[in-house]
């Protein structure tokens, strides 16, 4: 029997149709209306269709994650929101205004209500922390006195008031991103765009920056759009998620729904990155295709849902009156739902393994037969 | 060396410094904006004007590839038009400026292009106009490079200023050729060389110091 052959394909994974229930467009902060973006051929580079037929809304006050692999079109998408790029067709409406139709001074005025933070922080090395935060205010023509007051307030908000007169070269990555966030919020924007803002940071710093963003969303009501290729960022912060691949939206909806029942292979790949869907190497190396006398049959079950998994091993053992060996387990929580996989060893030969598989299937847990171990 | 000769050296040094500093000032006044424009006017850039960029680039290259001594002679009618004469330190400022301007423009272009393009995007993202981006982002961020560029330009101008001496421009070069070479006074030649070396060293040291002072990428306060 093929090691990776699935025993029960009959298990009805609840297929959500995420595009069926878009968030109400009436209360959208950002709305993409049939947007596509193509870059014409230039020199030796062929033309690129970066985004195709993008049509969705980002709810006001939400934290929305946009996740995709490199080159999926994430960066183009976010740059359409603040007018750094123009759509080839369709329009992008931000806070009720068609930003894709603005240019020159009107566009620059509109851009002041959209903040953006960057992967590499993009601070001016020639300016202190305070002066970096002051830059958008200088550009907006604020008076020196108002700028000083606002900058102090912002540095306080992001927790680095003591770094006021430090230059970026004297600060850590996390501190630099805090300045970036303060700068992005300076002109009191309604939308904050985050372009891989934590990708250059270590996990602990990432966590603190994401906490800060969550606070800002909660206390200031700023709508946050997170562009990322890291599932963990979406999981920690976002409520809504949009998965894009090859310039298309392939899936979107609430984070918990999408990641407990991923329909698209790209989403599944992102998910396995977080929950470690692959069989642990130590186990995989011991697997054999043929039954081993006195050994275990190895099955793997995927855990998805609010309560799944927590009692199943015990129930299985009681039901079949066998000792179930727990070979590997990885269960994570995403949006209050358990997501993960368990690899179990079933002793007692093929008959016991079949019985275990059918019991699990009845309990709505898809089973995969991996092989046998001694 | 007699008092008279020393006076000659002092006077010639003054002339050289006068020519160089005025030429450097005027050349920078024109070269800086030209350099900024060259750095920001290619396709898709801040002041995108690819055709103008190309033409300007060709003019700059043409001027730079003309040997200085030829340039001085070739533009004598223009020098007369501007300075009223083609002889003396004042007149020498004209060819010095013309020669230094494209040189400075290219150095400025290189320094500006060193600024991370992400910073331009960042400033655009919060609604900065192209002019604001130049004044508040590009020039401040390129300042260490610009200081070094101007230092290099002044050092080159010191060399050029010695050359205008050969065509009646006055200054240290004039002194070296007339006294040191034509009158066979090796001590005069040596004195001129020593003064020039001292001037170049001083300018370079001052420039390096200033560039370090304005460079905030280094960890020093």
Automatic annotation (TrEMBL), chain B:
Domain spans labelled ABC transmembrane type-1: 13-205
Gene Ontology CC: plasma membrane
Signal peptide (UniProt feature, chain positions): none
Keywords: Cell membrane, Membrane, Transmembrane, Transmembrane helix, Transport
Listed transmembrane segments: 17-39, 51-76, 82-104, 146-168, 188-211
Keyword Membrane applies: yes
Chief location bin: membrane
Pfam families in the record: BPD_transp_1
Domain of life of the native organism: Bacteria
Transmembrane helix found in the keyword field: yes
Topology in the lipid bilayer: Multi-pass membrane protein
Subcellular location: Cell membrane
Biological processes per GO annotation: D-methionine transmembrane transport
Family per record: Belongs to the binding-protein-dependent transport system permease family. CysTW subfamily.
Protein name, as recorded: D-methionine transport system permease protein
């Amino acid at each position: 029997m093929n090691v990776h052959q699935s025993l029960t394909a009959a298990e009805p994974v609840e297929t959500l149709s995420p595009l069926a229930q878009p968030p109400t467009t009436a209360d959208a902060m950002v709305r993409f209306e049939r947007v596509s973006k193509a870059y014409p051929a230039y020199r030796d580079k062929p033309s690129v269709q970066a985004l195709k037929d993008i049509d969705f809304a980002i709810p006001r006050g939400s934290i929305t994650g946009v996740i995709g692999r490199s080159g999926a079109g994430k960066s183009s998408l976010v740059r359409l929101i603040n007018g750094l790029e123009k759509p080839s067709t369709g329009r992008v409406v931000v806070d009720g205004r068609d930003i894709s139709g603005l240019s020159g001074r009107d566009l620059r005025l509109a851009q002041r209500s959209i903040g953006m933070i960057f992967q590499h922080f993009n601070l001016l090395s020639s300016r202190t922390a305070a002066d970096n935060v002051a830059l958008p205010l200088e550009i907006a023509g604020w008076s020196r006195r108002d700028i000083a007051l606002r900058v102090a307030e912002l540095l306080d908000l992001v927790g680095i008031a003591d770094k006021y007169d430090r230059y970026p070269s004297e600060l850590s990555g996390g501190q630099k991103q805090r300045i970036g966030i303060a700068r992005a919020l300076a002109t009191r924007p309604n939308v904050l765009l985050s372009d891989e803002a934590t990708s250059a940071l270590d996990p602990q710093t990432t966590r603190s920056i994401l906490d800060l963003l969550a606070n800002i969303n909660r206390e200031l009501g700023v709508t946050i759009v997170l562009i990322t290729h890291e599932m963990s960022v979406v999981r920690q912060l976002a409520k809504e998620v949009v998965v894009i691949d090859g310039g298309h939206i392939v899936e979107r909806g609430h984070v918990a729904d999408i990641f407990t029942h991923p329909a698209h292979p790209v989403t599944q790949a992102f998910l396995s990155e977080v929950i470690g869907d692959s069989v642990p190497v130590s186990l995989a190396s011991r697997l054999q295709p043929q039954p081993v006398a006195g050994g275990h049959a190895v099955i793997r079950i995927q855990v998805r849902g609010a309560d799944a998994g927590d009692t199943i091993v015990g129930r299985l053992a009681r039901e079949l009156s066998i000792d179930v060996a727990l070979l590997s387990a990885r269960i994570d929580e995403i949006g209050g739902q358990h997501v993960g996989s368990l690899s179990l060893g079933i002793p007692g030969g093929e008959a016991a393994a079949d019985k275990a598989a059918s019991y699990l299937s009845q309990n709505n847990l898809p089973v995969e037969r991996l092989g046998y171990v001694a | 060396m007699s008092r008279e000769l020393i006076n000659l050296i002092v006077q010639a040094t003054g002339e050289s410094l006068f020519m160089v500093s005025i030429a450097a000032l005027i050349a920078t006044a024109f070269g800086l904006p030209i350099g900024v424009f060259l750095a920001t006017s290619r396709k898709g850039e801040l002041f995108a004007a690819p055709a103008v960029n190309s033409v300007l680039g060709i003019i700059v290259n043409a001027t730079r590839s003309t040997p200085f001594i030829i340039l001085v002679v070739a533009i004598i009618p223009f020098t007369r038009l501007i300075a009223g004469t083609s002889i003396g330190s004042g007149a020498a400022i004209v060819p010095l400026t013309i020669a230094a301007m494209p040189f400075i423009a290219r150095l400025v272009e290189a320094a500006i292009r060193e600024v991370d393009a992400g910073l331009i995007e960042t400033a655009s993202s919060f609604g900065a106009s192209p002019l604001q981006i130049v004044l508040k982002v590009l020039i401040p961020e390129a300042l260490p490079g610009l200081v070094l560029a101007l230092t290099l330009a002044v050092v080159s101008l010191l060399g050029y200023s010695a050359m205008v001496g050969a065509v009646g421009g006055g200054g240290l070069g004039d002194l070296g050729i007339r006294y040191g070479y034509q009158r066979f006074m090796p001590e005069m030649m040596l004195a001129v060389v020593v003064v020039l070396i001292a001037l170049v060293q001083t300018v370079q040291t001052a420039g390096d110091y200033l560039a370090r002072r304005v460079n905030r990428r280094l960890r020093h306060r």
